[in-house]
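Deviation from plan, reported transparently: acetyl coenzyme *A complex.
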Amino acid sequence: PNTGNTAQNTTPTKPNKGGLEGIVAASTAISKVDGTAGRLIYRGYDIHDLARSTSFEEVAHLLWFGHLPNKQELASLRSKLAAERSIPDGVMQTIRALPHTTEPMDALRTAVSAWGANVITGKPTIEQTIALTARFPVFLAAFQRLRHGQEPLESRPELGHAANYLYLLRGEEPKEEHVKGLNSYLVLLSDHGMNASTFTSRIVASTESDIASSIVAALGALKGPLHGGAPSKVQDMLMEIGTVENAESWLREAISGGKKLMGFGHRVYKTTDPRAEELREMARVADPTGFVLARRVEELALSLLDELKPGRRLYTNVEYYSAALMNSVGLSGDLFTPTFAVSRCAGWTAHVLEQVSNNRLIRPEAEYTGPMDLHFVPLNER
Ligand code: ACO
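Because the crystal trials were delayed, the predicted structure below was used instead.
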């Protein structure tokens, strides 16, 4: 039975390095990551099929309701999302009050918190899920325009989630290939098993807190470079490497010097991340020139990691080609991680709903390693 949070120890295959590696922390019917076969499944469907043939809205429906929508259900969800694309006055005041130097990821986290404070009461519901997911791109685009001295724009109800986001950022009709690329990106990243930010959202939900608090906490977890903060750092790395000729010496020095290469390695995948395969093909088409360097760096890094870090089984993860793809649809580096959040909001909220549908408080234990039985000395004698 799905208890939502049954903690079980699986037999570890190697010495425990901490970080809850190999621990099953929840049961879920939302997505499955098979790190050995390199497969990602959303509610029974292979990610390759979904990335090539569905819209973000179809996948959000799949994650939230458990099945792919028919035409009528899809139209209904699209119109509900479109109806929620407004910013309440209290939230807009908070967004306007932020310094223009604020990182968009921090602005998004603040806006979600302000939205919760202004409108949310009670237990998480599907209506709140739709209302929040609809607003992620709206909050982000509003802040991004304000910090560049432009007024936020009104959403266009006839546009889908990806197209409306691009429109709100630029104020012009987005190109079809940009909408298609961003949509596939949003599908690919919308859920991923018990990753750090999803686990965070479930922990908060398990205390019977509200949906905004769960998602604010998840945004905090996603922000770090070991999770969703890597793609702009991949871009920095490629810019620093600069040329194909420079790649081998740069990578050798970095790996030998103990540097972690951004966009490589994964806790669960011990083979290529299937999302990276999709994004690689999309990046090849979208930016053939930039792709030459990225691909060469990937090939060299994989062989050098194999040589210098034998047995670690390090491959490219989803973040490596995310940067190239987002660049090609015209998103700036500071929007890479919050755009990841625009996608993952669908998965986080699905997990919050799953958690509260069959809840038990998530409360693990710690192994105490401090001293015992110390003699207590009162303050004026210390
Ligand atoms: N570059 C070089 N070496 C690496 C890398 C890397 N990117 N990743 C892991 N290693 C090495 C470690 O140094 C370690 O070597 P050691 O045994 O000599 O100490 C070994 O491989 C195991 O690494 P851990 O850090 O224990 O692996 P863990 O499962 O904890 O980390 C993580 C996974 C955080 C993704 C890691 O691979 C990493 O830091 N990658 C770079 C950041 C990144 O790309 N993050 C995005 C992840 S994808 C996502 O969250 C959407």
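The radius of gyration is 22 Å. We consider this an acceptable substitute for the interim report.
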